[in-house]
Amino acid sequence: MNNPFGLVYEGAITENLPGRVQIRPVTYEVEGIKVAANLYLPADCDETGDVKYPAVAVAHPNGGCKEQVAGLYTQRLAESGFIALVCDARYQGESGGEPRLRDYPANRIEDISGMVDYLTLLPMVDAGRIGALGICGGGGYTLAAAQTDKRIKAVATLSMFNSGRVRRNGFMDSAVSTIQQRLRRSAEARNEELKGNVQYEGFLPPKATDDELRAKRAELPENTLYRDGIEYYGLSHRHPNATGSYTTASFMKLMAFDVEDRMGLIDQPLLMIAGEKADTLYMTQDAFDKATGTDDKELCLIEGASHIRTYWVKEYVNKAVSKLDTFFKDNL
Which sequence spans correspond to the domains of the chain? Predict the structure, then answer.
């Protein structure tokens, strides 16, 4: 990883040059915990406050970090003229919080409102024109934030992942019969945390070599979430802050969360983008159908794309960025 800002996506900024999009690593606090973020500014941005810009807060996927796909889309939004901010979720990446890799929905949702707080206080941001984009798990949490945080004037998701539903019911609702068993295991893991023994789980085998990851990937069907996840997070776009893991005790909070429960509270313009071949598409479709509080909503399917291939395949990224550019310009 040779990028001076730690970025691992194609076309990433390597230095701040006049006349181009610039990146500013920043820190601030949410509920007393340090948040590490990257602020992307449009080319020739006037930072005096004499000119007011629309802005977008971007939330990263579960198990990811700000330097990967969320950074890519944040940079592309800045190239379209938006001030854009992406942060590491608290307890993850470069942000603070212990135990590491805790994934509580309430924390992730507040992280998004915290980004809105930060943007609102910037002199060059028009506080009345702030939108939000969430990717994968960050998409579910962004929808939840927009349900009650009406400072978010337009909300978009890419390859949305409903973390609570999957942790509770299993992927494709395949593990409903074991809900109580898994809740008890999570409660036991919380007791272990009290003893200083934090337990973790996730889709990437810990400390696996590249050969072991390739072997694991080869066991899985083509174009599926977990096969592509091993490819993206473990091999092609690896970053040390993106482990694909979370604390087992997080299940206690995750399994009680479901973004679909209050989708009717969203009255802002809504854009949901997903790959038409994604095995996670059912989550986007079900949440979209329950967004009954807004008439200004669109479901955009990217032909040929699976879930994680919207993260890096240029053809799919360009299509998603084009939709997002039009959506946010129309609504901010």
Answer: 22-173+258-331
